[in-house]
Amino acid sequence: MKGILRILTLLGCCFMFSEADEEGESGVGLLKFGLITGGVLLRRKRAINKYEEILLSASQEDQNDCAKRLVCEISSLPPTAMSPEEIQIASAFNSNYLDISKATVEFELAAQIGKRVGLEQCLVIYKRCPHSKAKLMEIYKETNVEEE
């Protein structure tokens, strides 16, 4: 669950960076919603559905595809080259097949592109994101979300 909360926080941060020239309020609102809801997910039966709803909202708000780019780039790495934080992100989208009926399909697709095609394709598909993996990981590492 800690990994999920950090990913949601990262998504919110990506929105703030991606939409810095716009209002950015949707990113901040989604970030707050994700963190609050994430804590509740530990105690709810429909946790997966709520998680998918949040990721669907995240995908819709992330107009520059920064979160998907990060998932793709991390997934292109061999597991032995991943940092602990990168392993957390990669494991959240570690399916070997795509279920196109799930709200998380865009993130799962990003992971598959990284795994199967590699970094170069990640950079082509998600080129709207102006931030490097290093910058996105810096945001992720600065996020301090504790498990309840």
Write up what this structure looks like:
The protein is mostly helical. The protein has one domain. The chain is built from eight helices and no strands. Helix 1 (2-18) runs antiparallel to helix 2 (25-41), helix 1 (2-18) runs parallel beside helix 3 and helix 4 (66-75) runs parallel beside helix 6 (105-116). It is globular.
Shape: globular
DSSP helix fraction: 55-70%
User: Main β-sheet: number of strands, strand sense, barrel status?
Assistant: none
Low-confidence stretches at least 5 residues in length (pLDDT < 50)? 17-45
How confident is the prediction overall: mean pLDDT?
72
Number of strands: 0
Radius of gyration equals 14 Å
Report strand %. Answer: under 5%
Keywords: Signal
Signal peptide: 1-20
